Amino acid sequence: MVGYVTVGTNDFQRALAFYDALFAEVGVQRLWSHGGMAAWGRSREAVAFCVAEPHNGQAASVGNGCMVALRMSDRGQVQVLHAKALELGGLDEGLPGPRGTHGFYGAYFRDLDGNKINAHVPAS
Fold first, then answer.
1. What does 78-112 look like in DSSP terms, one character per residue?
2. Is the pTM of this model over 0.85?
């Protein structure tokens, strides 16, 4: 049902560099970039992650309670993505580890614009 998700940025070039390096760690590449928006994903047919400068010209801001969750193939990818985000200047919001009682494994971080991102392996 979800086609893509978008987070805002106030520095498009910096966001491109951050997400290019971050997603390269788990084999995901930029699909396209046009104007002030870019998308990353495994293919154009799969769900994409996008970053954009706000269309209305106002400053991008993060929503309280908003988060984008990225499904990884295994716990190792969760750990790699979280570590890379911090290396690139992101902020830790929760170290990799099990959450709950049903096998969900996740890590949380904020990107350079403060957007909250989760990398996870869903419960089985």
1. HHHHHHHHHHTT-EEEEEEEEETTTTEEEEEEE-T
2. yes
